[in-house]
Design goal:
Helix content: over 70%
Number of helices: 4
Structural class: mainly alpha
Distance between the termini: 14 Å
Strand content: under 5%
């Protein structure tokens, strides 16, 4: 499990920490946030395919069915990893 966001924010905002430490923590925070957003997107796409075809979801999002497949596969892998 990831550390709490506050664990990443604390060294970023603490000017007593050296700049490289703050920069590293800022990058770690961005990576965590990107992961959360990516998993949220994947889950939303997966949920959408329960009501529409993959082509329908792809058209609505302005992307390809290959991208939908990739998102669904990633979502399924993350769900399998949790169990």
């Amino acid at each position: 499990m990831h550390r709490k966001f506050t664990d990443y924010l604390r060294p970023i905002g603490a000017f007593s920490h050296p700049v490289p430490v703050r920069a590293k923590r800022a990058r770690e925070l961005v990576e965590v946030a990107e992961g959360v957003l990516s998993r949220t997107r994947q889950e939303a796409i997966y949920d959408s395919t329960r009501e529409k075809t993959w082509d329908g979801v792809a058209n609505k999002l302005g992307t390809s069915t290959a991208a939908i497949n990739k998102a669904i596969t990633a979502h399924r892998r993350s769900m399998d990893a949790e169990h």
